[in-house]
Amino acid sequence: MSGSASDFLESAWLKHVLRLTAYPQPAGLWLAALLTHGGDSGGTEPTGGSYARVPAGTFTVSGSSPTEGVNDAAIEFPAASAAWGDVAYCALYDALTGGNQLLHSPLLDTNGQPTTVMVAAKDVLRIAPGALRVRAS
Q1: Exposure winner among 5, 65, 116, 127, fewest CB in 10 A?
Q2: Cα–Cα distances in angstroms (integers) from residue 52 to residues 25, 47, 65, 78, 104, in the given order
Q3: What is the pTM of this model?
């Protein structure tokens, strides 16, 4: 993932920086698998098959122009008890269900190219350490 900030997050940052409304740090971050990309309004998450958002874990932030945060450990979704379909996108939310989408991106392969992962029954969708990248440039 090397994605875009949602309109919600961009607005919250701007209001925070301009000292209009403080934006508190989210209590947690949850990763959503997406079948469709809805941009800033959120995409379509799988339904059924034991699907649930998972904690995004911790990140290491480094660099400048761009500054980049990467996931420190593997992120695993629960084993699918039924097919979820073709997962092509992901998003970070500030809640396990509902909540606000913060960032969104297509899934990327090891070469940084958009990819799709077919999640069938009994499959486990895994995001390798360092594969979830968030950039601010």
Answers
A1: 65
A2: 23, 8, 34, 8, 17
A3: 0.86
